[in-house]
Amino acid sequence: MYSTLYIKIRRFDGKKEWYQGYHLPYEKGRTVLWALTTIREQMDPTLVFTSACRHAICGSCAVTINGNAFLACKTSLDEVLETFQTPHLTFEPLKNFEVIKDLAIEWEPKMEKMEKVKPWLLPAEDGSKELGFKQSEEDYHQIAAPTDCILCGVCTSECNQLAVNDGTYLDPFILNRAYRFAVDSRDGSPEQHIQPVFENELWKCLHCMQCVSKCPKGIPLTEQIAYLRQESIRMGEVNNQGARHAFAFHDDVRSKGRLNEMTLPIKTDGLVNTAMRKVPFALRMIKKGKINPFHMPKAVEGIKGVREIYQYAKEVGE
Question: Has domain 4-105 been given CATH number 1.10.760.10?
Answer without folding.
Answer: no
